[in-house]
């Protein structure tokens, strides 16, 4: 089974030294999306500066097979925030 590594670069390099054995590239895509979603969920407030971060997925030989890029920028307050209205999610 192929081995994939999920490295995150967000101003610092978080290198995945363990990786994951997955059936193939399709499963690596799913894993990358799920991992990125978890990062955004858990640390999302830190990504609103507009600076890009990315996830580089490599194979066991160290070759890049996938790259996900993310950037979020707060454009200011919304009318709801100005009025202190809570909008259900």
Describe it for me?
- This protein is an alpha+beta fold and 89 residues long.
- The protein has one domain.
- It has two helices and five strands.
- It has helices spanning 25-43, 79-82; strands at 3-9, 13-14, 20-21, 53-59, 64-70.
- Strands 1, 2, 3, 4 and 5 form a five-stranded antiparallel beta sheet that branches.
- It is elongated and about 50 Å long.
- The mean pLDDT is 86.
Explain briefly what this protein structure is.
By secondary structure, the chain is of the alpha+beta class. It is 26% helix and 28% strand.
- Sheet-strand content, in percent, reads 25-35%
* Element string (H = helix, E = strand): EEEHEEH
User: What would you call the structural class?
Assistant: alpha+beta
Q: Looking at the structure, what is the overall shape?
A: elongated
Largest pleated sheet: 5 strands, antiparallel
| pLDDT averaged over residues | 86
Walk me through the topology.
Elements: E1 3-9, E2 13-14, E3 20-21, H1 25-43, E4 53-59, E5 64-70, H2 79-82
Notable traits:
alpha+beta
